[in-house]
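Budget justification aside, the reviewers requested a transparent look at the raw inputs and outputs of the sequence design task funded under Objective 1. We therefore reproduce one unedited record. The lines immediately below are the structure tokens for a 382-residue chain.
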């Protein structure tokens, strides 16, 4: 009798514990209910993946291209800056008043100026020219400086002519560093050096092109693009501007896969990008006996510009201006495989696959069966 009571107690204890089965994460229903919750003061949005949702994300991704953020750019090097070295030539028509004269074979006398030493633009932005004095040149073009010098020589020289040329450009430079042959400052000229010109001048990337990402920082704006995409689209090979900082990075991206997948892990991926279908393939796909095909979720802090304007305007945002979003994909539909190929994974995304309801039911049955066998065993022993 006592044996039976002990056995029944064990069985009841096992059944009582059934409400707390171990899981690899929230259930599908719990994730859907997250739409009523918040994260970091931002309203969590549940969005079913659809053609329209993916189209908005793709449009936003295109707006983050270098050409859209920074524009095509204009050639530089025509504006003089501090530290630049200038070559100045001054001529005057005969009879020369200030400068000596030279004779050519035709017998015509052509006056020309004496050699003027190259001028380095000082910290005050000026240079010194004989018979002219100090001339402010910083922030001006060579043509503007020529006109200033000619005007100051009026009445002193006979019909003066002036040519100003930038010999060494120290002010108009860009910096490139990271995974390149040599990190350095690159002088920019009126030729208009483009992004790939700068990368090539360092000896090129040290890592494979397909796994290299280029970042440009300019005037408080920062943008990244895969090097492969820049090579493929000439419009992204923008003209570099003074003080740009270019960084070449090797595979800076990763996503995390959790739940009912073959391999839960953090997975780095190349700068060329990755689709959801490829991401699931890299972790071995869904576990057949465990995964809920209706419960594939992607957790992301999304930029409001990538969402439906109605959602973006009404939802509260995090302190960083992002909106917590959970994208849901129903893998039970055949069209979902096309959507998975169009959905692009981003850095720090979390992919979560919930357990199928039958998995929890099976755990319950296994627990009850185990308890029942224990009761029988104890009863038989008595």
């Amino acid at each position: 009798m006592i044996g039976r009571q002990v056995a029944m107690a064990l069985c009841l204890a096992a059944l009582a514990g059934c409400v707390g089965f171990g899981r690899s994460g929230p259930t599908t229903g719990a994730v859907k209910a997250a739409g009523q919750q918040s994260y970091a003061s931002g309203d969590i949005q549940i969005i079913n993946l659809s053609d329209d949702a993916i189209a908005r994300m793709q449009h936003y991704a295109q707006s983050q291209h270098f050409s859209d953020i920074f524009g095509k750019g204009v050639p530089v090097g025509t504006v003089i800056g501090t530290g630049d070295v200038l070559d100045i030539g001054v001529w005057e028509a005969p009879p020369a008043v200030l400068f000596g004269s030279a004779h050519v074979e035709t017998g015509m006398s052509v006056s020309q100026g004496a050699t003027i030493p190259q001028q380095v633009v000082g910290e005050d932005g000026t240079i010194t020219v004989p018979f002219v004095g100090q001339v402010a040149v910083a922030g001006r073009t060579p043509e503007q400086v020529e006109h200033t010098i000619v005007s100051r020589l009026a009445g002193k020289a006979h019909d003066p002519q002036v040519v100003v040329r930038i010999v060494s450009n120290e002010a108009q430079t860009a910096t490139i560093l990271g995974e390149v042959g040599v990190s350095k400052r690159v002088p920019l000229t009126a030729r208009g050096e483009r992004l790939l010109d700068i990368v090539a001048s360092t000896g090129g990337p040290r890592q494979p092109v397909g796994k290299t990402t280029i970042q440009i920082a300019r005037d408080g704006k920062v943008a990244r693009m895969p090097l492969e995409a820049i090579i493929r689209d000439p419009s992204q090979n923008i003209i570099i501007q003074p003080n740009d900082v270019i960084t070449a990075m090797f595979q800076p991206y990763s996503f995390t896969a959790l739940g009912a997948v073959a391999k839960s892990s953090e997975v780095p991926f190349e700068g060329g990008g990755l689709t959801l279908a490829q991401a699931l393939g890299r972790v071995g796909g869904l576990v057949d006996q465990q995964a809920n095909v209706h419960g594939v979720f992607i957790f992301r802090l999304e930029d409001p510009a990538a969402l439906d304007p109605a959602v973006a305007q009404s939802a509260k945002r995090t302190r960083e201006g992002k909106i917590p979003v959970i994208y849901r994909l129903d893998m039970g539909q055949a069209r979902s495989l096309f959507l998975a190929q169009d959905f692009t994974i981003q850095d720090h995304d979390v992919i979560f696959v919930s357990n199928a309801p039958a998995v929890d039911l099976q755990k319950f049955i296994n627990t009850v069966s185990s308890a029942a066998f224990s009761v029988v065993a104890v009863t038989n022993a008595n």
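The CA atoms of residues 180 and 298 lie 34 Å apart. The mean pLDDT is 83. Computational costs for records of this kind are itemized in the attached budget.
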